[in-house]
């Protein structure tokens, strides 16, 4: 489950281990009752502005922070770690009281669990009462119960999973959600169009439905048109994107859309496709596929064969080739 993966992730961060946490290496900096430090926790400053001498068996906050930032340090985070992980490690040095025990659940705003084999989004997430961003890409999630999602969520990314149905997700969706990422899943238009309306996502600004199995372009557009705040839409990789009038129909049907398939919609493009949305006869059940061959290796080039001299009686050899496409 997501919650199990999250607790395992916290364990790997070592927020209570050196150089983080309230260990003997920096304990006096956070002992309000005995330490003269009264500044921001972990900075070691007193009201007079004078630095308190660090006991010989302790490290200064600056030295501990250097152990986290210096890439030669064995305690440094890897370069590809998330900004949230780096922020938690820094807090564990400068203000460890804020992330002790369950206190961390009150400060965490972003959670990234990618490629951990997660199959279930469980109710443990409800403990993250300030969570705004949840990224669960490249897992094995097939169904999501919206009742287990924090109501504060603004970004939900589920790219590269096995989601085939949105019914459970739309039961009690987070009301303030602004981005929903469902690319590279198993959604199809016949059963999902009705779940992509403003009734469920009134504040949605960005929607990624790329590389699924949507085929009904007019039906999908009729639902998306209710999303009055939608500005970014990604539909590439779906069968409907092969329709010749696909882009023009979407540009004219969704006048508030700013970006389609990662390409900005300019005023000239909107003018060029004006009125196309009313010509449904152009949306046919057919597709156009353009195949371009850049380079072929290992095949002899007939043009390089030595030309026969005029009047030569040598036999003429003809080469022919067959190229097969398999879809």
Distance between the termini: 36 Å
User: What helical percentage do the residues reach?
Assistant: 10-25%
User: Uncertain segments of ≥5 residues (pLDDT<50)?
Assistant: 32-50
Number of strand elements? 8
CATH architecture of the largest domain: Alpha-Beta Horseshoe
Overall tally of domains: 2
**What is the CATH homologous superfamily assignment of the largest domain?**
Ribonuclease Inhibitor
Outline type: extended
Largest sheet: 8 strands, mixed
> The CATH topology of the largest domain, please?
Leucine-rich repeat, LRR (right-handed beta-alpha superhelix)
Strand order of the largest sheet: 1-2-3-4-5-6-7-8
Q: What proportion of the residues form beta strands (DSSP E)?
A: 5-15%
CATH class bucket of the largest domain: Alpha Beta
On the 0 to 100 scale, the average pLDDT is 82
Structural class: alpha/beta
Instruction: Calculate Rg over CA atoms.
Output: 29 Å
InterPro entries: Leu-rich_rpt, Leu-rich_rpt_4, Leu-rich_rpt_typical-subtyp, LRR_dom_sf
Keywords: Leucine-rich repeat, Repeat
GO cellular component, one term: cytoplasm
Protein name: Leucine-rich repeat-containing protein 43
């Amino acid at each position: 489950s997501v919650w199990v993966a999250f607790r395992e992730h916290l364990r790997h961060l070592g927020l209570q281990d050196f150089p983080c946490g309230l260990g003997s290496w920096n304990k006096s900096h956070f002992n309000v009752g005995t330490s003269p430090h009264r500044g921001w926790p972990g900075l070691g400053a007193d009201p007079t502005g004078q630095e308190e001498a660090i006991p010989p068996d302790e490290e200064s906050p600056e030295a501990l922070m250097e152990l986290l930032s210096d890439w030669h340090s064995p305690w440094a985070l890897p370069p590809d770690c998330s900004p949230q992980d780096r922020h938690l490690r820094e807090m564990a040095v400068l203000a460890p009281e804020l992330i002790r025990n369950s206190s961390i659940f009150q400060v965490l705003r972003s959670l990234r669990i990618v490629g951990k084999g997660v199959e279930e989004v469980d109710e443990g997430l409800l403990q993250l009462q300030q969570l705004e961003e949840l990224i669960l890409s490249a897992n094995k999630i097939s169904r999501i119960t919206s009742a287990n999602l924090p109501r504060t969520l603004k970004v939900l990314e589920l790219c590269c999973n096995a989601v085939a149905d949105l019914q459970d997700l739309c039961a009690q969706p987070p009301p303030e959600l602004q981005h929903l990422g469902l690319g590279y899943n198993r959604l199809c238009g016949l059963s999902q169009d009705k779940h992509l309306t403003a009734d469920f996502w009134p504040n949605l600004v960005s929607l990624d439905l790329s590389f699924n199995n949507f085929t009904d372009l007019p039906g999908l557009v009729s639902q998306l048109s209710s999303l009055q705040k939608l500005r970014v839409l990604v539909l590439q990789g779906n069968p409907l994107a092969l329709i010749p009038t696909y882009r023009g129909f979407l540009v004219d049907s969704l006048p508030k859309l700013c970006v389609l398939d990662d390409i900005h919609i300019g005023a000239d493009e909107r003018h060029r496709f004006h009125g196309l949305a009313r010509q449904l006869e152009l949306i046919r059940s057919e597709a156009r596929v353009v195949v371009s061959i850049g380079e072929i290796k290992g095949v002899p080039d007939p043009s390089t064969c030595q030309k026969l001299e005029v009047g030569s009686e040598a036999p003429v050899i003809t080469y022919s080739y067959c190229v097969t496409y398999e879809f």
